């Protein structure tokens, strides 16, 4: 079932000045429940503008957004509820921390939802555990943590609101490979457990190949495609023409196929590729 | 959105006036201001108006944008007009009530003052519309450089000014981002009671200060890495060079000033 729908979504920055720029142009989308979705596109393709429409931070110049079949701009007083249901984590979210303790920072969003003290506590502890934030950190100042821990605290602050859709803008930017993997696994676990929809904006094709079911590809302010991840990576040449890459392993497979090895077309993670090559070797 | 605030109000189009040397533009603006105050006749205003309109057309700045610059001073205009109207006592009395009276001289002066202030604002905004803030600071540094002889830290002042100007848009963008991020967590910023709104500033101000300090430190390190040691022996990437056009503009401005001053003598 579709949880979020957009119709002809268009947004123009600084309309009527010399700096005028169409950031997204006529986007029609239908986002399902319980799904891990990757959002890719080159820099300036409109990804960030698009995701800020999903929780009502930006008002579209024209077009409509429906959350569970209700136009989110129909009643402006309910916009805040929309933001609790569509959680948005910006890039480098650690720069938004402000509270005295980690616990209070994670609780900020939940507190705004006017929940009871005990409910707030359960949610904070549960989210902290899910993201591997140890209990002894909860009473420390968030400014005393390491970069990776700060990032987790900031993400936890949004996750604790238990949104139906969680949007993460490059949650792994600036993390080391080990940290990336841990973070992505934790996000996947969260998605499985909460059965919510997670949108993952990323520049790493390897990450989206491994962790997402569907891909939303933006190009020059327009929606290029929204399809199953495997289907998208079959269109390697088109993606390359957009200035995007396919996962490294998919390029390797592409070259091998050109050399005459019979490998299937939908290989885009290292694990799948390994199995396929072993299979090929066994047949010889 | 905060980003929409026009800062330094620079309006980038390609025009003759934009290309003039900023030092000359500053001097010309000063000459223009002197011209406006050089006489108390409407002729002086007319010459000023001709000058403003001429520069306005040459600069390709839309009139609509210039009109906007008058809006903020509207209260001052009204205040000046009323004061002049009520307290200047010369010529024929047209209307009076108790100690208040409106005279011919009062009307004349208040209309004249409004005209003068409007021209003053229009003319000087043309300077900021056509010159980027960075060029403006460069020019100010150059024009103030004689003050170095009395140990006034001209270069340091100019450097601080350009750093401040450079970081205003960056910090505005940052503020915008932080506001969005806290809104995404349900912070109420646009509505609620006054106390709630003040409280809502905390989640914005703290991250903003933290990031401003972080940026300042990074910038200081970066400057040290590039061996910054103040103004001594420092050369410039953008050299300000005066051309024939610049001297020409200076001459035209001087001419306007001379005509304006001369008119006073002729009328007397």
The gist of it:
Chain A is an alpha/beta fold.
Give structural notes:
The complex is a heterodimer of chains A (284) and B (268). Chain A has 284 residues and is an alpha/beta fold. Chain A has a domain at 2-101 and 158-229: 3-Layer(aba) Sandwich (Rossmann fold), CATH 3.40.50.300. Helices cover 40% and strands 23% of the residues of chain A. Chain A is built from 11 helices and 10 strands. Chain A has helices at residues 47-54, 79-85, 102-112, 117-130, 147-159, 177-194, 205-211, 229-234, 236-241, 248-258, 270-283, and strands at residues 2-13, 21-32, 36-40, 62-67, 70-71, 86-89, 165-169, 197-201, 214-219, 222-228. By secondary structure, chain B is mostly helical. Chain B folds into 2 domains: 2-131 and 241-267, no CATH class; 145-225, no CATH class. Helices cover 68% and strands 3% of the residues of chain B. In chain B, strands 1-2 form a two-stranded antiparallel ribbon. The relative contact order of chain B is 0.16.
Ordered list of secondary-structure elements with their pairings:
The complex is a heterodimer of chains A (284) and B (268).
Chain A: E1 2-13, E2 21-32, E3 36-40, H1 47-54, E4 62-67, E5 70-71, H2 79-85, E6 86-89, H3 102-112, H4 117-130, H5 147-159, E7 165-169, H6 177-194, E8 197-201, H7 205-211, E9 214-219, E10 222-228, H8 229-234, H9 236-241, H10 248-258, H11 270-283
Parallel strand pairs in A: 3-8, 3-9, 6-7, 7-8
Antiparallel strand pairs in A: 1-2, 1-4, 4-5, 9-10
Helix pairs in contact in A: 3-4, 3-5
Chain B: H1 16-19, H2 22-36, H3 42-59, H4 63-68, H5 74-87, E1 93-97, E2 100-103, H6 104-130, H7 133-144, H8 154-184, H9 194-225, H10 244-267
Helix pairs in contact in B: 2-6, 2-10, 3-6, 3-10, 5-6, 7-8, 8-9
């Amino acid at each position: 079932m579709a949880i979020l729908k957009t119709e002809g979504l268009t947004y123009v920055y600084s309309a009527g000045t010399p700096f005028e720029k169409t950031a997204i142009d006529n986007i029609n989308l239908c986002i399902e429940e319980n799904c891990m979705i990757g959002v890719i596109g080159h820099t300036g393709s409109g990804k960030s503008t698009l995701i800020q429409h999903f929780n009502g931070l930006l008002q579209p110049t024209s077009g409509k957004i429906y959350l569970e079949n209700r136009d989110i701009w129909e009643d402006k007083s309910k916009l805040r509820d929309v933001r609790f249901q569509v959680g948005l984590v910006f890039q480098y979210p650690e720069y938004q921390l402000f509270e005295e303790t980690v616990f209070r920072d994670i609780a900020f969003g939940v507190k705004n939802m006017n929940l009871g003290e005990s409910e707030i506590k359960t949610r904070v502890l549960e989210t902290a555990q899910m993201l591997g934030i140890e209990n002894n950190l909860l009473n420390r100042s968030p400014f005393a943590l390491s970069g990776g821990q700060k990032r987790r605290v900031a993400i936890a602050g949004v996750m604790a609101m238990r949104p139906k859709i969680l949007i993460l803008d490059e949650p792994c930017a600036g993390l080391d490979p080990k940290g990336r993997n841990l973070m992505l696994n934790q996000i996947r676990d969260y998605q499985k457990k909460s059965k919510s929809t997670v949108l993952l904006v990323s520049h790493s094709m390897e990450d989206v190949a491994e962790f997402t079911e569907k891909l939303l590809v933006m190009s020059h302010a327009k929606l290029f495609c929204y399809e199953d991840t495997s289907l998208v990576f079959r269109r390697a040449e088109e993606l390359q023409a957009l200035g995007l890459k396919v996962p490294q392993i998919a390029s390797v497979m592409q070259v091998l196929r050109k050399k005459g090895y019979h490998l299937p077309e939908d290989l885009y993670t290292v694990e799948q590729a390994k199995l396929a090559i072993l299979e090929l070797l066994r047949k010889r | 959105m905060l980003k929409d605030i026009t800062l330094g109000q620079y309006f980038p189009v390609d025009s003759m006036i934009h290309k003039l040397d900023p030092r000359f533009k500053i001097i010309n603006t000063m000459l223009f201001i002197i011209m406006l105050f050089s006489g108390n006749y409407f002729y002086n205003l007319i010459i000023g108006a001709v000058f403003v309109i001429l520069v306005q057309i040459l600069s390709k700045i839309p009139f609509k944008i210039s009109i906007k610059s008058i809006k903020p001073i509207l209260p001052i205009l009204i205040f000046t007009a009323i004061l002049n109207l009520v307290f200047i006592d010369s010529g024929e009395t047209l209307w009076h009530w108790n100690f208040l009276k409106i005279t011919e001289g009062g009307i004349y002066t208040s209309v004249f003052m409004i005209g003068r202030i409007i021209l003053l604002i229009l003319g000087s905004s043309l300077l900021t519309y056509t010159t980027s803030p960075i060029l403006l600071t460069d020019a100010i540094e150059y024009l103030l450089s004689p003050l170095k002889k009395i140990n006034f830290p001209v270069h340091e002042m100019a450097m601080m000014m350009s750093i401040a100007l450079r970081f205003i848009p960056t910090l505005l963008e940052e503020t915008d981002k932080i506001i969005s991020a806290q809104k995404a967590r349900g912070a109420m910023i646009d509505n609620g009671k006054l106390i709630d709104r003040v409280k809502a500033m905390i989640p914005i101000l703290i991250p903003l200060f933290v990031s401003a300090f972080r940026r300042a430190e990074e910038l200081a390190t970066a400057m040290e890495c590039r061996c910054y040691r103040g103004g001594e022996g420092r050369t410039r990437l953008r050299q300000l060079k005066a051309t024939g056009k610049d001297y020409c503009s200076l001459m035209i401005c001087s001419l306007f000033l001379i005509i304006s001053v001369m008119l006073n003598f002729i009328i007397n």
